[in-house]
Recover the amino acids of this structure.
C-alpha cells in the first residue's frame, strides 16, 4: 500500500510584500500544489492522502478555493483523504457537502481501518479540551496524524506534544504537521515521527516544498521525500562589501549575482561585511532598479560601518567621536549599536534619516 503524508499546504496563501495584484496570482498558483498531489496519487496507485493540518493559509477561505478543493477530492474517488486541522484551519468549513472520501478528524482521537493499515488522528486545538486517548492495537500497523509541536514547552500557537506521552502507544508512523522543516526521529523501539515539511508556504527561509510517500508492505514501512514542481523559487544571495568601495562596483556585483536567476523567482540580496561610513549604497535606488527584473526583489543592508575606534577616541572636540563612544559603551545589542551609529553619522552629515 502507498500513502502520501503532506502538511502545511497553506492553500490560498500568498506573500504580502509583493502587492495585491501579484498576491492574487500566488493564491491561485498555490492551488496547483494540491492538484499535483492528487495527480501523483492517481498515477502511482496511492490509496490515501494524509493532510496533517494547515491545509489553508487563513481562517477565511475564498469560496472558489473551497469549491476547487472539494471538486479535486470528489474526482479522486479511489483515494481516501484523511485530514486533521491545524492552527490556520477552520472546522466549520467542512460541516456541509463533505465528500464521502474525505475524513475530518474531531478534536478527540478516532481511528479508521484502511486495508491492512489503521489510521488514527485528532484535530488538536490550542484553546479547547483535547482528548488524546490513543487506542491502537499492538498487532495492527498503525499510523497517527497530528498537527502539533514536539516539545516539552507549554507556550506557542499550537498544541505542544511531549514525546514521552506517545511512547508505547503502538504507533508505527506518526505523521506530523506544523514545523516546515523536514525532520524525523524515533518515538520508541517500534515507531518513528516524521514532519513532512513545507507543503506550500511562501517565504524566504522556508524549506523546499514537498511531501512524503510511504510504502507499506507485510507490516513494514519505508518512506521517501518528494519535491513539488514549483513555478517560483526563493533565492537568497550574499554580497560582502569589504573590498567594494563604490556604488558602481556594488551595482556590478548585484548584476553578477542575479544574472542566472530565473525572472519568475523571489530574490533577496543581503549586503554584509564592513564599508566606509561615507559609502552611499543607494539601497532604495537599486531595489527599484532590479524590482522589474524579478517577480519580487529585496535588498537588505546588514553591513557594519568600518570605524577606527581608537582614532575616534583620540579625537578632541569631536561630536562624532562622543556619539560613537556613547553608543559603543551602551547596553544595546551589537546589531543595534551598528544601526544607531549609521543613523547618527547620517544625521551629523545632514542627510535624511529614516527610522
Amino acid at each position: 500500500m502507498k500513502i502520501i503524508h503532506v502538511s502545511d499546504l497553506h492553500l490560498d496563501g500568498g506573500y504580502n510584500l509583493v502587492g495585491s495584484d501579484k498576491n492574487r496570482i500566488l493564491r491561485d498558483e498555490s492551488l496547483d500544489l494540491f492538484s499535483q498531489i492528487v495527480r501523483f496519487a492517481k498515477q502511482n496507485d496511492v490509496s490515501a492522502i494524509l493532510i496533517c493540518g494547515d491545509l489553508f493559509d487563513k481562517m477565511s477561505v475564498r469560496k472558489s478555493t473551497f469549491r476547487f478543493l472539494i471538486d479535486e477530492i470528489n474526482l479522486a474517488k479511489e483515494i481516501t483523504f484523511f485530514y486533521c486541522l491545524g492552527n490556520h484551519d477552520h472546522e466549520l468549513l467542512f460541516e456541509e457537502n463533505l465528500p464521502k472520501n474525505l475524513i475530518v478528524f474531531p478534536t478527540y482521537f478516532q481511528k479508521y481501518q484502511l486495508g491492512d493499515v489503521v489510521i488514527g488522528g485528532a484535530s488538536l486545538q490550542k484553546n479547547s479540551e483535547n482528548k488524546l486517548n490513543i487506542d491502537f492495537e499492538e498487532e495492527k500497523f498503525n499510523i497517527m496524524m497530528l498537527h502539533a509541536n514536539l516539545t516539552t514547552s507549554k507556550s506557542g500557537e499550537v498544541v505542544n506534544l511531549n514525546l514521552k506521552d506517545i511512547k508505547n502507544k503502538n504507533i508505527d508512523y506518526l505523521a506530523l504537521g506544523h514545523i516546515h522543516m523536514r525532520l524525523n526521529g524515533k518515538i520508541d523501539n517500534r515507531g518513528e515521527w516524521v514532519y513532512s515539511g513545507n507543503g506550500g508556504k511562501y517565504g524566504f527561509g522556508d524549506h523546499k516544498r514537498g511531501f512524503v510517500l510511504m510504502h507499506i508492505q507485510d507490516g513494514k514501512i519505508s518512506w521517501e521525500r518528494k519535491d513539488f514542481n514549483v513555478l517560483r523559487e526563493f533565492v537568497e544571495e550574499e554580497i560582502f562589501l569589504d573590498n567594494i568601495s563604490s556604488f558602481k562596483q556594488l551595482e556590478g556585483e548585484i548584476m553578477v549575482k542575479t544574472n542566472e536567476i530565473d525572472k519568475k523567482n523571489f530574490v533577496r540580496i543581503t549586503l554584509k561585511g564592513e564599508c566606509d561610513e561615507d559609502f552611499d549604497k543607494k539601497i532604495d535606488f537599486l531595489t527599484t532598479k532590479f524590482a522589474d527584473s524579478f517577480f519580487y526583489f529585496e535588498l537588505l543592508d546588514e553591513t557594519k560601518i568600518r570605524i577606527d575606534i581608537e582614532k575616534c577616541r583620540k579625537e578632541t572636540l569631536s561630536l562624532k567621536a562622543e556619539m560613537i563612544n556613547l553608543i559603543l559603551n551602551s547596553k544595546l545589542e551589537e546589531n543595534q549599536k551598528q544601526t544607531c551609529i549609521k543613523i547618527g553619522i547620517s544625521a551629523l552629515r545632514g542627510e535624511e534619516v529614516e527610522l
